[in-house]
UniProtKB/TrEMBL annotation:
It comes from the Eukaryota. Residues 136-287 form the Methyltransferase domain. It comes from Plectus sambesii. PANTHER family: CGI-41 METHYLTRANSFERASE, METHYLTRANSFERASE-LIKE PROTEIN 25B. This is Methyltransferase domain-containing protein. InterPro entries: Methyltranfer_dom, METTL25, SAM-dependent_MTases_sf.
Length: 485
């Protein structure tokens, strides 16, 4: 079944009351009674352990649920991008309408197959590139590096040599794990590798790891260390000097918030940038993230990309439709639906923390109505303690809020009221799951806006599920290229 953009936006508008809700306000704003009555009665019969199968949108439902809920679930599944990972660069090429690689390619192993039994590291990477790199990051960088090298070859073949790139630039490179691997993979192809990061400490540490890799490989002729640059990217900045004619591919592996949008703008406006591989994240930080309700204080140093940066929407089509997504909805798009389902399956009681935090918010606002969504201490293993133990730890560094807890503990009526809230923790989990079920659709809408934006400018753009979503939830890579010089 084919759904139009209007269908997707209509569904999101229909459930804005759900996507725009904050879990922290479950009791303060009485979220449960916003659900249709038939949903309330049906969900009250569902145990938290039943939710993993319901969150697996590809699985059949073996419970009696309201037809409207089943329809919503099926529509989200049909309207969202496929998150099942591709199996190799040839499949990426087919999706991107580029020819197969010149060199023979091996299908990618699944994440479980990649791991070495003893160490848990990726068997496809040499030992020196597994050091100081978590298995999740190894999974990601190996695939991105192969895609970039393949893209250089495929683009040149598709355009009969008219368009190709000789340089890959990793933006937001952090400690440089991807760029080190890419400098090795792209060495034979003569690919230069550069990085840009705003944090000078990260850049220095990346250079130290480069030197360590050079010593481990014992031969500098096998690779060239990436050129690393420190640069704070502000609205309107260019990443590449306009006089620099070396053709480039921009890479953003989980570039945060508006940084992903900035990469796409650089690609569309800079003639020397002929390709981009962008995996976004932190969608709630789009447009500076300054539309969060009850925001208390903003760091004055976080002024790199202001609200007028238009991180969303980017396309003329979305602007004409006046498409808007709230901070809460964009934050929901970052949720890891597969990982959450796994957590529910392995330890559903651990999710009581959602109820604890919502009950604590109710207590705080009861005493201090103007104190909403305050930052509190994160409490580990909260489900192993009672609410009052959790609350004391959560407020440990907030003496200004502690009177709310002290007053509640000494008031028998308040204690009884809190206990009356806590028995409804399965409802809190159900409401959380309902919101999480919509997360793939919201992410799909955000990424559709980016694809349409590039298409409006005449560029080929494709979304590819590059990683295993259970390991790397933000697994959709936007791959775009220019087909003329």
């Amino acid at each position: 079944m084919h759904f139009s953009l209007d269908d997707k936006l209509s569904l999101l508008r229909e459930f804005a009351w759900l996507t725009d809700a904050y879990m922290i306000d479950f009791f303060v704003d009485n979220h449960w009674h916003k659900l249709p009555p038939c949903w309330q009665s049906s969900l009250d019969s569902i145990a938290p352990s039943d939710w993993p199968s319901l969150l697996d949108l590809d699985s059949a439902v073996h419970r009696l649920l309201p037809l409207s809920l089943l329809c919503a679930r099926q529509c989200v599944r049909q309207m969202s991008f496929d998150r099942r990972p591709v199996k190799g660069v040839d499949e990426v090429g087919a999706l991107c309408n580029l020819p197969p690689s010149s060199a023979p390619t091996e299908p990618w192993l699944s994440y479980a197959e990649e791991l070495l039994n003893k160490s848990g590291h990726n068997r496809a990477l040499p030992h020196e590139l597994r050091v100081n790199t978590k298995p999740k990051k190894q999974h990601e960088i190996r695939r991105v590096a192969e895609v970039v090298v393949w893209l250089s070859d495929g683009l040149e073949k598709a355009t009969n040599g008219e368009v190709s790139f000789q340089r890959a630039i990793d933006v937001g490179a952090g400690l440089g794990h991807l760029s080190r691997l890419l400098s090795i993979h792209g060495h034979d192809a003569g690919l230069q590798v550069q990085t840009i990061d705003a944090d000078a400490a990260f850049v220095r540490r990346a250079q130290q790891l480069d030197a360590k890799l050079a010593r481990m490989r014992q031969s500098s002729s096998e690779w060239s260390a990436p050129q690393r640059h420190t640069k704070w990217i502000r609205q309107g900045d260019t990443l590449i000097d306009v006089d620099d004619q070396l053709r480039s591919c921009l890479i953003g592996l989980h570039a945060c918030g508006d940084l992903s949008s900035a990469l796409l703008r650089e690609f569309s406006t800079n003639e020397s940038v002929v390709a981009v591989v962008s995996v976004g994240c932190c969608y709630h930080k789009l447009n500076g993230g300054r539309d969060k309700e009850h925001m208390q204080v903003w760091s004055e140093s976080d002024d790199s990309l202001k609200e007028d940066s238009s991180g969303f929407p980017m396309s003329d089509a979305f602007r004409r439709l006046d498409v808007r997504l709230s901070f809460a909805a964009r934050e929901l798009a970052c949720h890891a639906i597969e990982q959450y389902a796994d957590r529910m399956h392995s330890d559903p009681l651990a999710l009581k923390v959602h109820c604890y935090r919502a009950a604590l918010e109710w207590l705080i606002t009861r005493r201090f109505p103007d104190k909403r969504h305050e930052g509190l201490r994160s409490v580990k293993r909260a489900a192993d303690m009672d609410f009052w133990q959790y609350a004391k730890l959560a407020l440990d560094k907030r003496p200004d809020l502690q009177p709310a807890l002290e007053a509640a503990e000494s008031d028998p009526d308040c204690v009884a009221a809190v206990n009356g809230l806590l028995v409804h923790w399965p409802r809190v989990v159900s409401f959380y799951c309902l919101r999480t079920m919509l997360a793939p659709l919201i992410e799909s809408v955000i990424l559709t806006d980016r694809v349409i934006c590039l298409s409006e400018l005449g560029h080929s753009a494709t979304l590819v599920p590059l990683f295993d979503a259970r390991v790397s939830p933000r697994n959709l890579a936007l791959i775009a290229y220019k087909t003329n010089s």
